[in-house]
Amino acid sequence: MAIHIYSGKNNIESKLNDSIVQSIPFRIHADCDAPVSQFFQPYVKLEENLLKGSFRGYPLKGKKLDIPGGYVGVVLHESIRPNNEKDERKFYVINKFNEVVYWNWDKTPSKNDSFIQALDWIDIAEALHSPITEE
Amino acid sequence: MSENGHGTTVIGSLKDLQSFIRERDNWQNIFYMTPISDLCKEYPCILGIDEAGRGPVLGPMVYGTAFIPINEQTLLETLECADSKALTEEKRDVIFEKICENHNKLGWGVEIIAPNTICNSMLSRSKYSLNQVSMDAAIGLIKAALAQNVKIEHVYVDTVGKPEKYQQYLKTIFPNLKITVAKKADSTYPVVSAAKGIEVSEFGSGYPGDPITKKFLSNHCEPVFGYPQLVRFSWSTASTLLKDIAYHIECEEDDGEKTPPATQNNSITAFFKMTNKGGTKAKTRHIFFKQRHLSRNVEF
């Protein structure tokens, strides 16, 4: 199976909104727009370098994660998901972001969180795969 | 409203109090204590604490405190707040104005706990009960008065829960104070009724059974986020309504907390058994990826 990503280059370089992605520890059984700026963002507080928020009454503790330099976060949209596993899949870049706010339920985000750990790969990949230059 | 020497707001009337509250975000806690008169620093005082708004599904919980030197306590009777059961909103406003007029003798404070704080506490990892929230608010008020040198001798607290345990708990925190915790203390001790006179009811009823409240809840539901933050999500009225009209959500629990599978205890003889070493071994990725929950879902 192949994956195609469309309008990537154009959209990333264009003036697409630099939105902020909020990663919350909940599975919401829906796929739709959500009024984050009305119901979530206004209630976020910064206390002693820790972000505090709330979702449906649950207390959240968050940390801003910057996307490493040279990288950009993109939001992909798939209009039709093929029924067949082997079919090609098409994704479109619909937005980009440079930071993610990572939230835990009532627990300070740390190196123990897999989401934060996963970002280690970016540095390691750089070391492993960047071309060797002879000095 | 006026500013005192320290640049903090001084509330001298009901109007001041109303604008003080309106100026603040109603999703955050509010704490206020009057400047302390010399009389309250010099003479032993009684301090009363009362709670309002434990039941409603909307709006904050309010803790009021009033303190007065023991030798001035007859003043409390002139406030006519002793029979607090019959306190109407208008009557309460009159009492509050009287309390403000007597600021040289009678001090007061208020703590407003925002609805979001209440449900965040109840839905935290280490379940922080409503009783504990309530006790901590009372302790906070006593500590604030002590910190400003109010010469507290006796504390009277109204409670809806078990008075004995609560009284014992306060006693361990304030061993030097006399403490009385009682049910309906507001009708027994005038200083508690005075504290009641301080609480301000902002939202009509807000009680779960109230049809207007129910209508508000169903009209203000947002399918992803639920309700605006003046609603106490942890109340069953709110959560059952959400089940019907909002998207279902699940809290992602940590995978890391699962117990690792027990290591297999192979028998010693298993060592000598023939294994298919020549066979193809499934290629596994390095532990680095596994630990970081990185997996390859699709081939690009």
UniProtKB/TrEMBL annotation, chain A:
Any single GO CC term annotated in Swiss-Prot or TrEMBL for this entry: ribonuclease H2 complex
A Pfam family hit: RNase_H2_suC
Alphabetical list of InterPro entries matching this protein: RNase_H2_suC
Q: One GO biological process from the UniProt record?
A: RNA catabolic process
Q: Domain of life here?
A: Eukaryota
Q: Which PANTHER family match?
A: OS02G0168900 PROTEIN, RIBONUCLEASE H2 SUBUNIT C
What protein does this entry describe? Uncharacterized protein
Which organism does this record belong to?
Rhynchophorus ferrugineus (Red palm weevil)
* Organism placement in taxonomy: Eukaryota, Metazoa, Ecdysozoa, Arthropoda, Hexapoda
Automatic annotation (TrEMBL), chain B:
Family the UniProt entry places it in: Belongs to the RNase HII family. Eukaryotic subfamily.
Q: Which organism is it from?
A: Rhynchophorus ferrugineus
The name of this protein is Ribonuclease
Enzyme nomenclature, EC number:
3.1.26.4
Pfam families in the cross-refs: RNase_HII
Q: What keywords does the record list, in alphabetical order?
A: Endonuclease, Hydrolase, Metal-binding, Nuclease
Q: Where does a divalent metal cation bind?
A: 50-51, 158
InterPro entries for the chain: RNase_H2_suA, RNase_HII/HIII, RNase_HII/HIII_dom, RNase_HII_hlx-loop-hlx_cap_dom, RNaseH-like_sf, RNaseH_sf
Q: What remark does the entry make about the cofactor?
A: Manganese or magnesium. Binds 1 divalent metal ion per monomer in the absence of substrate. May bind a second metal ion after substrate binding.
* Highest taxon of source: Eukaryota
Q: Which cofactor does it need?
A: Mg(2+); Mn(2+)
